[in-house]
Design brief:
By secondary structure, the chain is of the alpha+beta class. The protein is built from eight helices and 18 strands. The chain folds into three domains: 80 residues, Pseudouridine synthase, CATH 3.30.2350; 133 residues, Pseudouridine synthase, CATH 3.30.2350.10; 53 residues, Archaeosine Trna-guanine Transglycosylase, Chain: A, domain 4, CATH 2.30.130.10. Helix content is 23%, strand content 36%.
Length: 284
């Protein structure tokens, strides 16, 4: 298969993101498959994969916002901040009421400094944090700026709460569970996580691996680019300049996908020094 595009997978629980990539490589008949941001094995939901030339879109898609549905359990802290870790502390939650829980959750909306979970894929001196933790090393990660655009508490059921989160890339929902529990003085961890969207790609666009095995479906690279970026249609002369990576005189509001008159996706361009200049060219 020589076509390029995106495959939006509804990942099942218990699989790594690499497991999904391996399966899609077989289905697509190409080794050139990558993903835009991992999902933990425990998590389910939207995993965006690029095939062939579309793998070069993935780095730009990783910067976009994401949305999740999650369940948080209060009163129990774990070594991984989720249900797969060892219990490190248990505290009674009898003293909490729903008003307290909702008020504390509201404090996690906005621009935050978040310490990533210890078992994250962040590299520390060239080695993944989760690998250092598995090797018994003490891992201390620095707080990083993240943005939580929205955190909606749908239900509080005793010591469990169901939430939806819309956030910037790089936000750890496990860390929100941990920090919310700490804020309430009882500890907490994530018991389920389902990613419902990555940028414009949502569960409605996603297919399970079984469904893809029955009928392999890929979003063409031009449609994927139009969905994710501001689109600009060029004339033939401009398109010719773009094909060889030249700057062009087009007003752009920011990073934009530019297209030939026949609809072919050519490149990502951005405004710089008064002209539109290439970020990544996808032709040739």
């Amino acid at each position: 298969m020589s076509e390029s595009g995106l495959v939006v997978v509804d990942k099942a629980g218990g699989m790594t993101s690499h497991d999904v990539v391996s399966r899609v490589r077989r289905l697509a008949g190409t080794r050139k498959v990558g993903h835009a941001g991992t999902l933990d094995p425990m998590a389910t939901g939207v995993l965006v994969l690029g095939v062939n030339r579309a793998t070069r879109l993935l780095g730009h898609l990783m910067l976009t916002e994401k949305a999740y549905d999650a369940t948080i359990r209060l009163g129990v802290a774990t070594s991984t901040d989720d249900a797969e870790g060892e219990v490190t502390a248990t505290v009674a939650t009898d003293g909490l009421d729903e008003v307290q829980v909702r008020a504390a959750a509201a404090e996690f909306v906005g621009d935050l400094l978040q310490v990533p979970t210890t078992v994250s894929a962040i590299k520390v001196d060239g080695k993944r944090a989760y690998q250092r933790a598995r090797d018994g090393e003490q891992v201390e990660l620095k707080a990083r700026p993240v943005t939580v655009h929205e955190l909606v508490v749908h239900a509080v059921r005793g010591d469990e709460l169901d939430v939806s989160v819309r956030c910037s890339s790089g936000t750890y929902i496990r860390a929100i569970a941990r920090d919310l529990g700490a804020r309430l003085g009882v500890g907490g961890h994530l018991t389920s996580l389902r990613r419902t969207a990555v940028g414009p790609y949502a569960l409605a666009d996603a297919r399970t691996l079984d469904e893809l095995g029955d009928e392999f479906a890929m979003m063409p690279i031009a449609a994927a680019a139009r969905a994710a970026f501001v689109s600009v249609d060029l004339d033939e002369r401009q398109a010719g300049d773009v094909r060889v990576g030249r700057a062009i005189d087009v007003d752009l509001a920011g990073l934009s996908a530019v297209f030939a008159p026949d609809g072919e996706f050519l490149a990502l361009y951005e405004p710089k020094d008064g002209r539109a200049r290439p970020v990544a060219v996808f032709t040739g």
